[in-house]
Amino acid sequence: MADLKRVTELYQDFPDKFRSVMLSTANANGIPQASYAPFLIDANRSIYIYISGLSIHTANLKQTGRASVLLIEDEADTKEIFARRRLTYDCAVTPVPRDTAQWQPLIHRFEQRFGNIIGLMKGLPDFQLFQLRPEGGQFIIGFGSAYRVSSSDLNQLEPRRQR
Question: Going from the N-terminus, what domains does the chain have, and what CATH number goes with each?
């Protein structure tokens, strides 16, 4: 198992390597659906996604208010396909309506990160902004190196022990 301080630094920087998250949602009947979405992350580790109301995952988020997100090392960059570095969060989901004070600064950050396409998308009424608040998760850096993300402090990792 690696030094916890080093692992925590890897964990803190890991989301910066990505522009999109893998998104797992389920409808009210529990039928799962996998997708992805470009994202922003804030200092509290809340993830923001700006997605079409026509997509299945948007309907699922509205129905259940729950999602799981995955950030995973690219296959081309991994030394071992069975031990790809990855971060998962279990999230509570809340819409961020256009008429709130939070919406405009977040959309501005999306424009800075993703460019002119956001200007087009914000003119489309079906696009909606969501906040995904992690309530815990896991950071895996390889075989025998699995860490639980503390639900009480998302910046704290706890080594996972085999049961």
Answer: 4-159 (2.30.110.10)
